Amino acid sequence: MRPIFALFAAMALSACGTQPPSQPEEKAHLLLISIDGYRYDYNELHQPPALSAFAEQGAMVEKLAPAFPTLTFPNHVTLVTGLLPENHGIVGNSFYSPDMQDVYRAGKTDMDGRYYGGVPLWSLAESQGMTAATYFWVGSEAEIAGYRPSYWKPFEYIEDFQLRVDQVVEWFSMPEDERPQVVNLYFHEVDSAGHRFGPDAPETRDALHKVDAALGQLMARLDALPHDINVIITSDHGMANVEQDPRYNTDDVLRDHPELKEKFMMRGTAAVNHIHKMDGATEADLDQIVALFNATEGVEAYKRADVPLRLRFKGHNAVGDAIIVTNDHYLTYDGARPGPIGMHGYETAAVPEMNTLLMAKGPAFETGARIEAADNIHLYPLMAEILGLTIEHEIDGEFEVLAPLLAE
């Protein structure tokens, strides 16, 4: 019950047309965490205590579908731009760019902002007067859409988890005029173990539990800060066991056609290969090479204009003049290292192990809210809404899809 003197005071202020001074609204803070290769069912399969509790207590997308191809670099850019790979231009972990006339690759050309389309979340934030920070995230070492994050860390394959935890806590502990409101954090170790040992292996479980312990400490330390932080935990893709999948050697297909092999550049992964015409290659040559690859059951080849709509993967010229795709073979070539036990890159509709999940906690989110399935392109507008950022450019994602996760 309100004290009687407070009631009279409010009536008096109202009578003279004066309202009590309002408290300044607290700035929103957001931490986006990606655990590379974190399959949608890993909480149940591997029982990480901190992440399982986080999921139970927060809002969740039970199956978050990555964009095709379900690879690390394309989907980390999709998560922070709301664009499909065919629209942001990062169509593989490594690929040939006809526009740049060079190969995009990690640690080399990935720091060149000209490869990237769209406006990453940190660039959107910085352009609207908000401070951003990234601790390992694809594209964050480049200037994109005119901006870099105010604080960022160049990627190192091996680094103590404690350094990451301490740095994120330090960022969120800074004075308000220096403090980032949006921070990105990345862990690669679960993906590495999944590739080497397979998604069901005890080594993959151990890798996940190490990340889980670091995140458990991080959450406890963030909870102790005087301001609230919204935390989203997700991934770029899942992981499938491909140990028994037949190996399909693309060089074997071309062995009897050496004249064709010299006219094309081929790059790709176990699930998708790009075929680029070189000097002297004709459309007839392209038709012939597509027909050769289509002769194998379980392997599909398409000229770019003919790529099925379900893939949403033909709108950028970094996609090959033709592509080879498969969901039940392992694409390889002469001289390739033996294939790992775990792999990704395949279509989520055909290989559901490609799905990841999304878990979120904080004042912006409705405790216990659940969405069964959604595409990851919709995360970007949700994050912009939480931060109060305005999206004025075209994206593929839609805010309404993930809006049910938010508190009213």
Textual characterization of the structure:
By secondary structure, the chain is of the alpha/beta class. It has two domains: 30-240 and 348-405, 3-Layer(aba) Sandwich (Alkaline Phosphatase, subunit A); 247-339, Gyrase A, domain 2 (2-Layer Sandwich). Helices cover 30% and strands 20% of the residues. It contains 14 helices and 18 strands. The chain has helices spanning 4-15, 42-46, 49-57, 72-81, 85-88, 121-127, 161-172, 189-197, 202-223, 250-254, 258-261, 283-294, 379-387, 399-402; strands spanning 30-35, 59-65, 95-97, 102-104, 132-135, 151-153, 182-187, 230-234, 240-241, 247-249, 264-268, 272-277, 299-303, 322-326, 330-332, 342-343, 356-361, 370-375. The protein is globular. Residues 1-18 have low confidence and may be disordered. Pfam families: Phosphodiest. It comes from Ferrimonas pelagia. InterPro entries: Alkaline_phosphatase_core_sf, Phosphodiest/P_Trfase. This is Ectonucleotide pyrophosphatase/phosphodiesterase.
Going by CATH, what is the homologous superfamily of the largest domain?
Answer: Alkaline Phosphatase, subunit A
Proportion in β-strands: 15-25%
Number of helices: 14
Q: Shape from CA axes?
A: globular
How many strands appear in the DSSP assignment? 18
CATH topology of the largest domain: Alkaline Phosphatase, subunit A
Largest sheet: 8 strands, mixed
CATH architecture of the largest domain: 3-Layer(aba) Sandwich
Average of the residue pLDDT scores: 93
Structural class: alpha/beta
The low-pLDDT segments are 1-18
The top level CATH class name of the largest domain: Alpha Beta
Pfam family, one: Phosphodiest
Organism: Ferrimonas pelagia
InterPro entries: Alkaline_phosphatase_core_sf, Phosphodiest/P_Trfase
Protein name: Ectonucleotide pyrophosphatase/phosphodiesterase
